[in-house]
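Deviations from the work plan: none for this task. Representative record:
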Amino acid sequence: MPDFILDVQGLETTFRTPDGVVHAVNGVSFGLAEGETLGVVGESGCGKSVTMLSVMGLIPSPPGKVEAGKAMFAGQDLIKMSKEEIRHVRGAQIAMIFQDPMTSLNPVLTIGRQLEEPLMLHIGMTKNQARERAAELLSMVGIPNAKDRLNDYPHQYSGGMRQRVMIAMALSCSPQILIADEPTTALDVTIQAQIMDLVKRLRDELGMAIIWITHDLGVVAGLAQRVLVMYGGYIIEEAPVKELYANPEHPYTIGLLGSLPRVDEKERAKLFSIDGLPPVLYQKPDACPFAPRCKWAIEHCWKENPPLLVVGPDHRAACWVDTKTGRHR
Amino acid sequence: MVTKEVNNNDILLHVEDLKMHFPIYRGVFQRQVGAVRAVDGISFDVKRGETLGLVGESGCGKSTTGRTILQLYKPTSGNVIFDGADLVKLKGEQMRQMRRKMQMIFQDPYASLNPRMTVAQLVGEPLMVHNVATGAEINERVQHLLDVVNLNPAFASRYPHEFSGGQRQRIGVARALALQPSFIICDEPISALDVSIQAQVVNLLEELQEQFNLTYLFIAHDLSMVKHISDRVAVMYLGVIVELTSRDELYAKPLHPYTQALLSAVPIPDPIADAKRKRTILQGDVPSPVNPPSGCRFRTRCPIAEAICAETRPEFREIKPGHFVACFFAERFL
C-alpha cells in the first residue's frame, strides 16, 4: 500500500436522537494517497458526509459524538486534536466545499472580504496582499472582472458562480486535501459540467488530493481514481473506478448501477429497482445491513455482518456471497 | 422492452403559442415595470397514450408550462386545447368537469401532502370534492388505489410523516389517479428521491400508464431519466422550446446547439464511455427571463451564434418529419 496522507481507521460516530442512538458511521477505514481523487458514493443517510465531518471535527456535539477511531494526517490524529488545533488544519491544509453554495456564504459580507479572511488568518497576509491574492483566486476559478466583483455580495452571484467562489476560498491556502461534499448537486447539468471541468484543471495544476462525496455515480465515473461505496454507515465496496463500474461485486453496488438509466442507453429496458428502504441503525447490526433488500442473501448474511473481503486486485467488498456464482465466498 | 401503441393522429393536448408572463410591480403605486417571461410562446402537441418529456435547466419555464396547461395560472395569451375544448376559455363548472381528466404529480412529496390528513383522507379527497363517490364507496376506492400503487391498504389510517419519500410519492400518485384521469402532468416526480427509490417510482409510473392508458407530460431536469421514460422529448431554454422530436432521434442526433451541450454535460455512470465522449462546455449562466436576449434566446452562450441570431428570433420549424428545432443553422448538423 502506498503512503497515505490521510489515514482513517475504525471511525465510529453516533447521534443521540429522541428515538434512540443512531449509529451513523460504524467503523470506517480508508486511506487517501497524495494527489489521489477518491470518490465516496452512497444515498442519503449512508454516513458519507458524517464520515468526513467527523474527520474534520465538524460534528455538532451534542447530539453527535465520535465514539472511536483515528484520522492520521501529517503524523497527528485529527480526532484527538483540540478545537483550537484543528482550526489551524481546517482551511489551511484540509479544505472543504459544501453542497449548498447559497447558504455557505455569509450574505452580509462582500465576496472579497470572505476570500481575504482565510488568507489573513492562516497565511498571515496583510490586507492589501490578501486583496490582490483574492482577485487572483477569483480569476483562477473563471470569474470575469475579478477585481471589481470582489466588492459584490453573494446575492449578486449566480449559483454556479457562488460555487466557484467556494472553490476559490477552499483553494486559497493551497491545501493538500480538498473535501468536496456534493458540490454540484444543487447546480444544473451545464453548470455542473463547468465546475467539474474547473476542479479537474485545478487538480492537475495544484496536485492536491480530493475526496469527492456524491450520490451520483455518473459524476464519480468521470472524476475519481478510486471509489468507496457506503451503505448504512459502512464501507461496503472499495475499488479502482474502472474496476468498480465494470465488475461491481456487492449486490448494493450492482443494484445502484442497474437502477440508473443512461443517456447513452440503446434499448429501453425496465429499470432494475432495489426494493425496500435504506436502514436507520439504532443498533449496530449483527447481520449484513443490506440483507433485508438483497436478493442474493443467504443464511450467513443474517448471522454475521461481513467485513470487507478481498475480491480482486485492489478490490474489496463486504459480502458473503460471490454474486457471480451465487455461492458463499 | 416496453412497447406502447401510440396513434399518431390522436392528439389529446394541443398547446398553441402559450405565453405566461408574471408582472413585476414596483413603487408606491405598484406600477407594472416589467414582466418575468417565464413561458414565451410555445407550441406543441401531446398524443393520446404517449409520454412527452419536457426537459430544461432550472428557471427555463418547464414547471410553469405544466401549471399553465392545467390553468393553475391564467395564461397571458395562447390556446390550450384539451380533448377538443379550449381550457383557456372554460369557466366554473365546465372547468371543474375538465379537471377530473387531468391531474398533476408534484415534485416534493414532503411538501405536497397535508401533514394533518391521513392517507385515506388524502387519497379520498378528490373523490369527495368532485362528488364521484360517497361514504363506504370512498373507502373501497381508496383501498383499491393504494393497492394499485403498491402501498399496503392497511396503512390508510396513517399520516404522511410515517412514510418514506418514495412511499409518499406513491400516495401522491394514488391521489392523482383517484379521478381516473386520462392525462397526468408529472412535475419532477422523482428528483427529491434517492437513486434506488427513483427506479421504483418510475417503474410504477410505467406500469400504470400501460394499465390505465394514461398520457404523461413528464417534466424533469434529469436527461437520462427523461430518455428512459419518454416517447418524444421537448427541450426548453429560457421560456421557449428549442427542440422537439422522438427520443431516439433527440439523443442520437440533436440538432440544436443547446441540446447538444446539454446532452454532453450529463455524466455517464461508466468511466470508459465517459472518457471517450466529446464535451461541449457552455460558458456563463442562463440570462434572466425578465430581460431575455434579443433574437435567439440561446445566442449569448451559443458556440455557433452569428449576427442574425441577435436580430431575429429563429422560427420553431419542422426540419424533417416530426423533428422541430428553433435554430437558423440546424441544417449543419443534419
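The first helix of chain A runs from residue 48 to 55.
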